Amino acid sequence: MNANETIASAAERSDHTVTSVNDAVEETGAQSAPVEEGKTVGKPHADNPKFKLRNVEVFYGQDRAIKDISLDIGRNEVISFIGPSGCGKSTFLRCLNRMNDSIDICRVKGQLMLDDEDIYHSKKDVVELRARVGMVFQKPNPFPKSIYDNVAYGPRIHGLANRKAELDEIVENSLRKAGLWSEAKDRLDSIATGLSGGQQQRLCIARAIAVNPEVILMDEPCSALDPIATARVEELIAEMSESYTIVIVTHSMQQAARVSNRTAYFHLGHLVEVNETTKVFTSPEHELTESYITGRFG
Amino acid sequence: MPDRKDDVYGDHISNKFNDELMALKTAFLEMGGLVESQVASAIDALVDNDGHLADEVRATDKKVDKMEIELDEEATLILARRQPTARDLRLVVAVIKMVSDLERVGDEAKKIAKFAIKLSEEGQAPRGYVEVRHISNHVLSMLHDALDAFARLDSEQALRIMKEDKRVDEEYQAATRTLLTFMMEDTRNISRCMSVMWILRALERVGDHACNIAENVIFMVKGEDVRHTPVEEAEKVVGR
After folding, report:
1. Cβ atoms of residues A148 and A188 within 8 Å
2. Model-level pTM?
3. Quick check: A281 and B8 CB within 8 A?
4. Are A26 and B153 within 8 A, CB to CB?
5. Is position A298 within any domain?
6. Which residues span the domain enclosing A116?
7. How far apart are CA A95 and CA B215, in angstroms?
8. Strand order across the beta sheet in which A106-114 lies
9. Contact (Cβ atoms closer than 8 angstroms) between residue A112 and residue A95
10. Residues of A with CB below 8 A from B154's CB?
11. What is the ipTM of this complex?
12. Considering only A102-106, B1-5, B71-75, B88-92, which range has the smallest mean pLDDT?
């Protein structure tokens, strides 16, 4: 199905008939249509996409975890993926830098383009892809090495620095961008696992930034952090959005509302709705989105 | 309190959240009922020359003010505790705004009661009371319908109220002209007619507040702000 058809069918279904719910004369706003495969309401397309994803399906053995999802991710956009556990948002995220490759029974179908290059092309260099599309995980996972070596690791294996001075500069810049420099500059040789949880997560972000990626994927980056560390990381996301495209999976709806331009709602492997974040949280188009974000199921 | 299962705000996973939203809705409707009866009593006091009733209206306004503060507090607590989204958020935000409309309707009732006392003390033949009665019936039914539209989430009824407001404005203009004629006939009427003018003005404002409430109901139901937009635009929003 092409983009226009998707939009046309979404528009057609939004012209729903009003259903009365007990004493209420009409349902508030959102449509009550059930989720239809391959149909996403709202604005799944972007004018200048960094990622162009079409008819993506992911299988774990016989199980179809992602069902015909088409989505654009805009350049320098922050997009949030939300949805109940098991809805496929993390699986979908992990397709974007082929993290699913490590799972033997996992198969990915459909077209996944990064700047018009097929991510899943058989000749694609996955190491190079992951340098361009970095990732930050739920639990901070620094290497059991010094703070300096954690950040320098990527640039070293990708040969980004010829001299020690260059590497020092990359490490400093990355730590600065991740908002960790002032806390870490006097203890660069200390072991990274001695940092606090929030500092470790910012170190992981610095490590991701160090190889100069274009996209940063974040899989629940704040769920193991306290509110202050969370606020720091969110602040960082806002700053980083000037130079990177950011895709963030989060269970915190308030976080999605705070940090992202667009929000995508996943449900049982379907992409139900994509819209501007302000729209999703004030008047979502789809009934399922509404139910989820207002805490009516999940 | 209505059974939570009968209300679109009552089906959260958290029952406590349901209760909070329902309590907010109920308290708002209670306050609405109170200001409705305040306006009606103020007009009765005026037309029946009942100074005692007018005093009562003025005293009861304190209760209206108290309810405003309580509702605002309740709404603020829900925002802090629950971070509501979508329709829940629109309900809470709309209630916060509509509460000030209700409080001002209460103030208008108090104002009418004040003039009712003044006019009954002056004790002259009623002039312009027919117009007052007529317009008060009109705006009271608008207010009642606006609260009803809120209770039932009926955006079409809310739209009808927005349209009614124009008619009230016309009636107000016509009544003003009539009173001007009385004043020109006999200058001794002027003081008295000015008081009635203020009462008409207060009633016209009640109509405006009912209209504001109606606009907020459309926002709650449709998610679109129809304030400061032509009625035709609001019609399109409601038709969606």
Report:
1. yes
2. 0.84
3. no
4. yes
5. no
6. 3-293
7. 45
8. A63-74, A49-60, A106-114, A117-118
9. yes
10. 25-26
11. 0.79
12. B1-5
